[in-house]
């Protein structure tokens, strides 16, 4: 019985469409909750309450039926009826325990899951702490909707992604990719972790990261270093990173979806090696969506962004500095 099928049965049960056999199975679900505690997270608050009510009703219905049968069948052995009553009582306790577990389990942090699916272009992802990720086409990332109140900032990656992490000495930033865990405080790096590949690679472009799995720490990487983890042998090789190879995909077409100018600026600064200053009015600008093409220049991108946001820019090439303001 997999989770998907279990949830389908739950939905049929709550809608009153479950067969008697399915109802009996679901009413004995306590052990399933022990084995798969995250199943109940898929239920809405209304579904949890409805299930709680129906289980309670079912318990009393069974007790009532037992009492009626006991009254009608006087010839039954009294010892057997005691065992039956005890069995029903144990079932009631089990169901009550499951209800208590559902209602008192700490609420887990809501997560955001983003997948590029079959998209051909890369995608900019702005994380809740101000860090950003460039997600390669076909990759998937999930993370907490908010990092507030969390001791660490954690994301889970499947595929290829470039991370530019905002420094926070009190809350490490951790990327889970396959069996590897990469921990940083503030840096930029690339992780390639496709499930079908024989290896996982981490390359650092700025700062320092620690790479480990459940069993051991493989080492610390600094700028321009790369670590490759071979899954089958659980062995690693550390080499000099070749940014022209492992980051070449980052300069392809990239989708900036539902972003502000301030959020887009981090990517532009990294991509074009400039410093961008946004005026107060610009920082509060509307959100927009734009695709930056591989061969577009900085000024072409700035013109497109400013036209949409009714803004203007100045570009000092000598200082490598861009100023974006609202049009007067």
Describe this structure in words.
- The chain is α+β, with helices and mostly antiparallel strands and 328 residues long.
- It folds into three domains: 3-104; 111-248, Jelly Rolls (Sandwich), CATH 2.60.120.1440; 253-326, Phage tail protein beta-alpha-beta fold, CATH 3.55.50.30.
- It has helices at residues 3-14, 20-27, 30-35, 45-72, 78-104, 243-246, 261-272, 280-283, 298-308; strands at 111-115, 122-126, 132-135, 140-144, 153-164, 173-177, 180-184, 188-193, 199-206, 208-212, 217-222, 225-230, 235-240, 254-259, 275-278, 288-292, 311-316, 321-326.
- It has a 15-stranded mixed beta sheet that branches.
- Helix 1 (3-14) crosses helix 4 and helix 4 runs antiparallel to helix 5.
**Helix share of residues?**
25-40%
How much β-strand is present in the residues?
25-35%
What is the CATH architecture term of the largest domain? Answer: Sandwich
Dominant shape = globular
What is the H-and-E element order? HHHHHEEEEEEEEEEEEEHEHEHEHEE
What is the SS-derived class? alpha+beta
Largest sheet: 15 strands, mixed
Distance between the termini: 64 Å
Write the layout of secondary structure elements.
Elements: H1 3-14, H2 20-27, H3 30-35, H4 45-72, H5 78-104, E1 111-115, E2 122-126, E3 132-135, E4 140-144, E5 153-164, E6 173-177, E7 180-184, E8 188-193, E9 199-206, E10 208-212, E11 217-222, E12 225-230, E13 235-240, H6 243-246, E14 254-259, H7 261-272, E15 275-278, H8 280-283, E16 288-292, H9 298-308, E17 311-316, E18 321-326
Parallel strand pairs: 2-14, 5-6, 15-18
Antiparallel strand pairs: 1-4, 2-3, 3-5, 4-5, 5-8, 6-7, 7-10, 8-9, 9-12, 10-11, 12-13, 14-16, 17-18
